[in-house]
Amino acid sequence: MANANRAKGLAPYEEPLRESPYVAGGTIYPGDIVRLNASGLVVAASADTNPNMGVSAQYATSGQEVKVWDHPDQKFVVQADAGGSIAIAQTDAGLNYQIVATAGSTQFKQSRQELDASSGASDSNLPLRMLAIQPAVDNAAGVNAKVVVVLNNRQLAAGTEGA
Predict the structure, then answer these.
(1) Alpha carbon distance 161, 155 (integer Å)
(2) Residue 101 in contact with residue 29, Cβ under 8 Å?
(3) What angle do CA 77, 52, 91 make, to 5 degrees?
(4) Out of 2.40.420, 1.25.40, 1.10.10, 2.40.300, which CATH number does the structure's domain 11-151 have?
(5) Are 77 and 14 in contact (CB under 8 A)?
(6) What's the burial of 141, exposed, middle or buried (CB within 10 Å: 0-12/13-18/19+)?
(7) Please, which residues have CB within 8 angstroms of residue 140's CB and are 6 or more apart in sequence?
(8) Are 24 and 42 in contact (CB under 8 A)?
(9) What are the angstrom distances between the C-alpha of 6 and each of 28, 62, 85, 117, 150?
């Protein structure tokens, strides 16, 4: 059975370890990977290798409070994109991946970020590290698989640099 294509950003895998309030520097959707900009405001991450700080837990617009899952040990679940029909497998665990930073859904107020399945590499500057295929009845290795990840190169972790 093929996996459903339902990109909705990242969500905590297991219980959230911490949720902290920040101020949004633009429109943020729940499930967006976010970072602090030079002004100390939270903005949605783009597909690059800059450090990120966490994942948004809610919708917010510029100047509003936004809650962020920002614990450095937090694991997340995210959908892998079709990536030129690249099939994600458990043997890809340990590889690092770029994000597909698609704009959020204004209708549903939900992130559309995904793991870029075609970007798997050993480069730890990429924003996501895959740990496993999410164990679920409606999920299997392959295209649009849901995977368990952690954020690499975190702004709030020791030894990283800011935005």
Answers:
(1) 6
(2) no
(3) 40
(4) 2.40.300
(5) no
(6) middle
(7) 1, 3, 133
(8) yes
(9) 19, 27, 16, 15, 20
| pTM of the entire predicted model | 0.91
- How do residues 30-57 score in pLDDT, each as one tens digit? 999 999 999 999 999 988 888 999 999 9
Q: Give the C-alpha separation, 114 to 116, whole Å.
A: 6
DSSP SS3 for 46 = coil
- Residue 137, sorted as left (phi over 0), alpha (psi -120 to 50) or beta, turns out to be alpha
DSSP state of 91: G
Q: Which two tokens stand for residue 54?
A: 């966490």
